[in-house]
Each structure stands twice: as structure tokens, then as C-alpha cells.
């Protein structure tokens, strides 16, 4: 840790990890209700549990992004954060808002637009927190050194905050409601968040591999260019069947096919940088998470996204378990794993200690990644059968669901592995103090040296 | 390639291209907005009752079990075409009674079957909700879903 104010990131990461725990436990509960539908049905209905599962995810990922920004911007700008105090105020607002939202969901007070169910005061709280963050981080960057990494990171964070305004716009016309709702949902995860992801990944690779900054930054601009060129009009793949004009079927199909490219580039970028890099950084777990994130993002967001994005396919698969399969692997690979990569990289520095408990951390990577992959496969099978029976043959929804129960049972098992992995990650990051179980090998000799 | 695509060129392509796509997207959004209002949802007036029904839909977070035009959770049946499935799309009265009967018979309590909670609603709210569902069903969704099963 080079700058004192980077310490702010520690508290953001702690809060993020706590919510991560809540999120996966909520997911496990929801997965169990698929297996045993009467469980909690009177006390805590499925819709409330699902709101907690999805909202906790979104908030902890954002907390992770904010924490990552507070950690990496001082190093990039070569100066302290403009106001650590404001950063703490921002965190308190976000935590009060989050606890307030969870509390009000439990007593049945919520909105009804998916993922944006937060009560209005919480939405305003998020807006205020975002403004505080943007002012704080922009002042830091403007008075320090500017790099491509901070440029892209800031642009991503500014744009995603601006898009939050659409969370307040809820037209009475359902089709318009849906169209503007996607301005937040799609343009976050398939455009602006990709900018944040690419910038953080570039920072990690720069630190972990020691590759020349010029090379990293050129890659970064190419990646984010392909992300926005494909992602903006790629929004069209959500506009096929909600009452919008038919031309979106072609625009959406073509541009969302290109959405695979930035994820392919990010994966290639990560591996090429590691091959080219000459640094033997001791934090191997952070490297594993960085490579893992870009790889799983390519499969989850890229391949599984493409799987059902063409309008001819989507006509049959829209709103089935295929979507759920894609959603889980894409979020895990692109945003969960990336956040865990930053946490793994930053936490030893923030706590001023080594070793990194790398073996436990890496075990948690394989548990979570294996669990998520298995979950994705079984949901894809379930979705394929559902698509055929319901959309092609025309059998009723509930009848079809009953024939999918074996997949939901396997999904629960996969989910349990993910939860164990998540708890192991939290334990290895925060609690474990024992020195490394397996001593790290000596540095690979570089040819010619 | 290294000489042609310098970092500053890559940056300029990124900024310039992004602005271009944002403008194209904004233009298409304006056109789509008009199309929704004038064409695809114009088959039935957006009455006060429909708007109230949308609020009932939101207040009870129906979207976190059901899907509507294929969006939402996938835990319970699609409702974008439910009035067609029930054969009540053309009759407000039938839609109301059908929905009221359904809501008031929940939860079914059948062991091993997904449970819909019991929502205490006034007749006005139920009527608003059934009008909202009829309104959603009349939307021109490019022929989706493929069949009445939803």
C-alpha cells in the first residue's frame, strides 16, 4: 500500500464480502425452494428471497467497484484520495440504504420493476452516494496523473451513474417501462460495467505481470471500443418481444453477436499479458482469479449469451431456464470473479500482511467456478427441455416444470458448492492466519538470464 | 499493426465510435417510443384502471416469480398472454372473475407444488390488475410467445 488513503478500500471490501455472503445464502434458499416448494412459502415467499438475492449481488458488486477504484486510483494518479472522509460518508449511505432495502423487502415494502425494487428513498441514497463518489474520484484523478486506466474506469463509472437516472423513470405504458428499464439493466452489465471490468483487469495485469504500460493501455482502448460498439446497439436483443418495432430483431441479432468480441479480447489479453510478462508476482491467487474471470466471462457472457441471442432462437428460448443459466455464469465470470480478483490482490496489502493463504483462496476459486459451471450446464439442459416441451410442443408451464425437478436438485447441489466456496473465500481473506500450506516454488528462470 | 494502431489512435476510435453509436441508438429509441405509443400498444386505451393495475402488479412484486413478455423470474407461469390462455381477453368481466377466483384460492397448499402466496386485494385492485393483464396481452409483441402455453 503506497498511499494511506487506499485504506478506504478495506472497508468497502469488508462490506462487499458481507453482502456476498447474504447473496449466496439467499440463492441457496431460492434453489432449495425449487426442490421443496412448500418450504417457507407462507413466511418468506420466493419473490422476496429473489429480490434479496439479486439486489445484494448488485450492491456488493458496486461496492467492490467503488472499493477497487479507491484502491487503484491513488496508485495510478500518484496521489492520495481527494477526501477519504467523503468516501466513508458514501459507504455509510450505501450501507444504510442496503439494510433499509432488505428490511423493507422483509416487511413487504418494495417497488415492482425487476432489480430496481428499492424504495424511492434508497434510490435517492444510491444517487447521492454515486455523486459523492464521482466528485471524490474525479478530483483525485484531475489533480494527479491521468492514465488510460483511470480514463476508462472513470468513464465507465460516470456513465453507469448517469444511467441510474432511468431507475427513476417508470412510464405508465408497460412497453415503454420495459424499454427504459433496459437502459439501466443492459447498458450497465453489457456496456458500462464492461468498461469498469476492463480497466480493473488492465490494472491487475499491469501489476501482476509487469508488462509495459503502453501495451496494456492500447489493448484496453481496443477492448472498450469493441464493448461499446457492440453493446449499445446490442441492447436490441432485449427489444424483440416487448412491443418494439420488428427491426430490432436484426439490429439486436447482429450487434449482440459482436458482443462476444470484447469478452474474447479480454480473455486473450489476460493470457497474452501473462505469457509476455516477466514478473513473478507472489500473489498467484490474484492471477488465478484474473485469468479465471476473463475466461469464465468469455464463456458465460460471450458463448452462453450468443447461444440464445439470435432472434430466431430467442423466439423459443426467451424467458426459460436458458436465460437463468446464462445469467448466472455471466455475472459470476465477469463481475463476481473480477471483484474477487481485486479483493485477493488488494487485501494482503490493505491488511499489511503476507502470506496470502493462497491455497485456501485457490481452492475456493475451483469450488465456486466448478459449482457455477455445473449449475450452468444443468440449467441449460433444463432450459433446452423446457423450450422444447413448452414452446414447441405447447405443454403448460407447471407440467413442464414438474418434469425438470431432477435438474433443480442438481442445481441445488451445485449451488451448495458455490456457497461453500464463497464462505471459504471469505474465511481465507479475513480470518486464516496460518502460513502457507504449500511453500511457493522458486521463480521461473527467464531464458537468457 | 503496432505502428498503425497507436494508443492515441485506439483512444480516438473509442471515443469517436462510441459517440456515433450513442447517437444512432438515441435516434432509434425516439422512433421506437413513438411506435409503442402509436402502434404496438394502441389497441386498447391506457386507462386509469390499467395504470392502477400496473401499480398493483409492482406493489406485490409479481415479477419476481412470474415473467411478463418473457422478462422476470422463471419460477411461475408467463402472464403476458394469460388472458388469452384463459380465454378472457375480450371480456373484462370474465377476466375479473377468473383472476379473483384464482387469487382467492391461493395458496393451494398442495404438497410438492410451488405456492403462490395469498394476496389480500380489494375488488377494485383485482379488476385493475385484470385490466392491466388484458392491456399487456393486446400488445403487438411480434408474435411472441410461440403458443398459448406462454
UniProtKB/TrEMBL annotation, chain A:
One of its GO terms (biological process) is aerobic respiration. The keyword Mitochondrion does not apply. Pfam families: COX1. Keywords: Electron transport, Heme, Iron, Membrane, Metal-binding, Respiratory chain, Transmembrane, Transmembrane helix, Transport. GO terms for molecular function: cytochrome-c oxidase activity; heme binding. The chain crosses the membrane at residues 12-35, 55-74, 86-108, 120-142, 149-169, 181-206, 218-241, 247-274, 286-307, 327-347, 359-385, 405-427. It comes from the Bacteria. Signal peptide: none annotated. Residues 8-449 form the Cytochrome oxidase subunit I profile domain. PROSITE patterns: COX1, COX1_CUB. It is a multi-pass membrane protein. It is found in: Membrane. The keyword Transmembrane helix applies. One of its GO terms (cellular component) is membrane. InterPro entries: Cyt_c_oxase-like_su1_dom (IPR023616), Cyt_c_oxase-like_su1_sf (IPR036927), Cyt_C_Oxase_1 (IPR000883), Cyt_c_Oxase_su1_BS (IPR023615). Belongs to the heme-copper respiratory oxidase family. This is Nitric oxide reductase, NorB subunit apoprotein. It comes from Lutimaribacter saemankumensis.
Automatic annotation (TrEMBL), chain B:
It comes from Lutimaribacter saemankumensis. This is Nitric oxide reductase subunit C. Residues 48-137 form the Cytochrome c domain. Keywords: Heme, Iron, Membrane, Metal-binding, Transmembrane, Transmembrane helix. Pfam families: Cytochrom_C (PF00034). InterPro entries: Cyt_c-like_dom (IPR009056), Cyt_c-like_dom_sf (IPR036909). The chain crosses the membrane at residues 12-30. One of its GO terms (molecular function) is electron transfer activity.
Amino acid at each position: 500500500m503506497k498511499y494511506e488513503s487506499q485504506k478506504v478500500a478495506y472497508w468497502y471490501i469488508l462490506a462487499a464480502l458481507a453482502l456476498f455472503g447474504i447473496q449466496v445464502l439467499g440463492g441457496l434458499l431460492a434453489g432449495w425452494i425449487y426442490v421443496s416448494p412448500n418450504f417457507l412459502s407462507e413466511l418468506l415467499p420466493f419473490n422476496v428471497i429473489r429480490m434479496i438475492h439479486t439486489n445484494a449481488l448488485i450492491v456488493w458488486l458496486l461496492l467492490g467497484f467503488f472499493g477497487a477504484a479507491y484502491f487503484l486510483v491513488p496508485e495510478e494518479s500518484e496521489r492520495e484520495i481527494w477526501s477519504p472522509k467523503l468516501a466513508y460518508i458514501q459507504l455509510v449511505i450505501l450501507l444504510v440504504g442496503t439494510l433499509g432495502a432488505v428490511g423493507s423487502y422483509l416487511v413487504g415494502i418494495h417497488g415492482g420493476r425487476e432489480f430496481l425494487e428499492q424504495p424511492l428513498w434508497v434510490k435517492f441514497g444510491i444517487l447521492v452516494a454515486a455523486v459523492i463518489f464521482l466528485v471524490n474520484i474525479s478530483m483525485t484523478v484531475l489533480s494527479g496523473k491521468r492514465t488510460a486506466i483511470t480514463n476508462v474506469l472513470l468513464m465507465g463509472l460516470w456513465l453507469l451513474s448517469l444511467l441510474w437516472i432511468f431507475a427513476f423513470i417508470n412510464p405508465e405504458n408497460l412497453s415503454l417501462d420495459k424499454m427504459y428499464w433496459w437502459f439501466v439493466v443492459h447498458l450497465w452489465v453489457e456496456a458500462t460495467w464492461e468498461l469498469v471490468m476492463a480497466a480493473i483487469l488492465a490494472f491487475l495485469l499491469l501489476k501482476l505481470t509487469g508488462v509495459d504500460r503502453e501495451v496494456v493501455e492500447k489493448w484496453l482502448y481496443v477492448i472498450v471500443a469493441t464493448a461499446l460498439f457492440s453493446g449499445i446497439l446490442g441492447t436490441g436483443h432485449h427489444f424483440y418481444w416487448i412491443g418494439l418495432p420488428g427491426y430490432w430483431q436484426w439490429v439486436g441479432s447482429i450487434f449482440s453477436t459482436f458482443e462476444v468480441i470484447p469478452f474474447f479480447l479480454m480473455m486473450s489479453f489476460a493470457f497474452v499479458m501473462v505469457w509476455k510478462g516477466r514478473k513473478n508476482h507472489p500473489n498467484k491467487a490474484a492471477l488465478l482469479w484474473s485469468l479465471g474471470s476473463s475466461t469464465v466471462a468469455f464463456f458465460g457472457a460471450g458463448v452462453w449469451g450468443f447461444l440464445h441471442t439470435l432472434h430466431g432462437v430467442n423466439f423459443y428460448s426467451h424467458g426459460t431456464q436458458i436465460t437463468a443459466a446464462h445469467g448466472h455464469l455471466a455475472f459470476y465470470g465477469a463481475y463476481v470473479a473480477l471483484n474477487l480478483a481485486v479483493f485477493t490482490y488488494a487485501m494482503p496489502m490493505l491488511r499489511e500482511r503476507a502470506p496470502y493463504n493462497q491455497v485456501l483462496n485457490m481452492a475456493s476459486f475451483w469450488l465456486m467456478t466448478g459449482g457455477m459451471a455445473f449449475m450452468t450446464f444443468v440449467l441449460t439442459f433444463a432450459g433446452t427441455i423446457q423450450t422444447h416441451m413448452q414452446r414447441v410442443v405447447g405443454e403448460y408451464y407447471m407440467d413442464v416444470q414438474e418434469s425438470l425437478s431432477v435438474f433443480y436438485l442438481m442445481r441445488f447441489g451445485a449451488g451448495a458448492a458455490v456457497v461453500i466456496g464463497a464462505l471459504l473465500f471469505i474465511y481465507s481473506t479475513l480470518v486464516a492466519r496460518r502460513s502457507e500450506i504449500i511453500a511457493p516454488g522458486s521463480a521461473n528462470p527467464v531464458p537468457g538470464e | 499493426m503496432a505502428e498503425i494502431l497507436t494508443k492515441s489512435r485506439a483512444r480516438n476510435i473509442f471515443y469517436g465510435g462510441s459517440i456515433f453509436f450513442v447517437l444512432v441508438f438515441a435516434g432509434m429509441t425516439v422512433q421506437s417510443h413513438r411506435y409503442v405509443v402509436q402502434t404496438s400498444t394502441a389497441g386498447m386505451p391506457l386507462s386509469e384502471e390499467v395504470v392502477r393495475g400496473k401499480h398493483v402488479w409492482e406493489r406485490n412484486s409479481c415479477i419476481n416469480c412470474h415473467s411478463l413478455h418473457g422478462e422476470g423470474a422463471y419460477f411461475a407461469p408467463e402472464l403476458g398472454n394469460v388472458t388469452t390462455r384463459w380465454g378472457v381477453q375480450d371480456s373484462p368481466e370474465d377476466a375479473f372473475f377468473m383472476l379473483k377466483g384464482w387469487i382467492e384460492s391461493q395458496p393451494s397448499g398442495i404438497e410438492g407444488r410451488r405456492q403462490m402466496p395469498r394476496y389480500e386485494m380489494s375488488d377494485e385492485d383485482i379488476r385493475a390488475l385484470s385490466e392491466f393483464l388484458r392491456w399487456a396481452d393486446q400488445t403487438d409483441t411480434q408474435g411472441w410467445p410461440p403458443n398459448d402455453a406462454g
